[in-house]
Specification:
- A hairpin with a 5-residue loop joins strand 7 and strand 8.
- With 203 residues, the chain is an alpha+beta fold.
- Strands 1, 2, 3, 4, 5, 6, 7, 8, 9 and 10 form a ten-stranded mixed beta sheet that branches.
- It has three helices and ten strands; from the N terminus they run βααββββαβββββ.
- The longest helix is centred in the middle third of the chain and has 11 residues.
- It has a single domain, classed as Brix domain (Rossmann fold), CATH 3.40.50.
Length: 203
Amino acid sequence: MITTSRDPSSRLKMFTKLIFPGAQRMNRGNHEVKTLVHACKANNVTDLVIVHETRGQPDGLVVCHLPFGPTAYFTLDNVVMRHDVPNIGTMSEAYPHHIFQNFTSRLGRRVSNILKYLFPVPKEDSRCVITFTNTDDFISFRHRTYKKTDHKNTELSEVGPKFETKLYMIKLGTLENENTADVEWRHHSYTRTAKKRKFLSVE
């Protein structure tokens, strides 16, 4: 189930329609988080995703795995909507394959598992692919279709949307308990290290 912060812009509504194929969308209205979580649990929803925005620009993503957690918090940056992608490819109805690159640390594997279970299992002949590429803990999201032009070459077409995201916290438990839930991992901007650590990959 995917929803938004209250009173979403038309841009945010459009973003939620395309980010997770197969997800159900719900208008947030005046519903409290606790009510949303309980309704999702009662209807056997596997994950509740809430997308936030600032001045019409999507800038935050919360993924709450149900029924017991965890809850992961991500920033969103450089969001390019589908209609803003040049030479846009045709949107396929097929569920996409997903590829995770450079999620090699224990935390990286944890994050890739949180993200990959948001997507339904694709058929083998699906020509859609979503890639999550980790570079210095910034994750690039790309949605593409592909076709083979001959026995050696493959042609990729951007479908959109596309964006960069960064994990900043994982909490144990579900979203309605976020004020009391234990923090499993949190990103700290200032650390006394000789060089910048990379948390999602093994150096």
